[in-house]
Amino acid sequence: MSLIRVLPGLCGGVHSGLARRIRRTLTDRNAEAQTNKLVCIGDKARSMLRSTHSEHMLLSVKQIGRVSPVFKDASTVANAIAESGFPYDMAEIYYNKYHSPVKYEITTLPVFNKYGIEMAPNINAFDDIEEDQLESYAEWTLAALLYYALKQGAASEQSARMSAMDNATKNAADMIRNLSLLYNRTRQAVITRELIEIISGAAALK
């Protein structure tokens, strides 16, 4: 079986778990580089996996993920996969699924080629499906699922950034409060010492 694994939007520590998951999956399955390929979306994805799994790299797509993703980004990746000529049976999209401002989880989406769709148990519910229609549907499904994964990843990333900024703001407020307390105590100690010196000097003159 030929397999493609797609990692969208790898950037920052929030997504480093995706790279670890991919490495673990490739190791556990003893995946061969000839039949198991990686498609990396974003510069971080490539840099995280190139050092350990360069032989699995099919292609990497840059300039995606720096701004809010649009469907054109997903279709660009889908077209690049189609034009690569790699004959895959199934693809897995690894991404961070957004649940709440404080929770997201690594999730996979299965994607099948036209032959996998043709073998689906409910495909007989549709009449007279031609091969070019299956091909178009498979390509559109890949682009649509990639777009979904990119949006989920972007939401998870923004949520993590908001949480990090909120924690940084709270930490800064705590630091300001502690430094203000230290300043006031030091200032009071200096004033007290100066008063003691003045009183001691006045007493010595009597």
UniProtKB/TrEMBL annotation:
Taxonomy, top ranks, is: Eukaryota, Metazoa, Ecdysozoa, Arthropoda, Hexapoda
**Name of this protein:** ATP synthase subunit gamma, mitochondrial
Which Gene Ontology MF annotations are present?
Answer: proton-transporting ATP synthase activity, rotational mechanism
Name the family the entry cites. Answer: Belongs to the ATPase gamma chain family.
Cellular compartments annotated: Mitochondrion inner membrane
Describe its membrane topology: Peripheral membrane protein
Kindly list the GO CC terms recorded for this protein: mitochondrial inner membrane; proton-transporting ATP synthase complex
Record keywords:
ATP synthesis, CF(1), Hydrogen ion transport, Ion transport, Membrane, Mitochondrion, Mitochondrion inner membrane, Transport
Q: Indicate whether Ubl conjugation appears among the record's keywords.
A: no
Which Pfam families does the entry mention?
Answer: ATP-synt
Please give the organism. Answer: Parnassius apollo (Apollo butterfly)
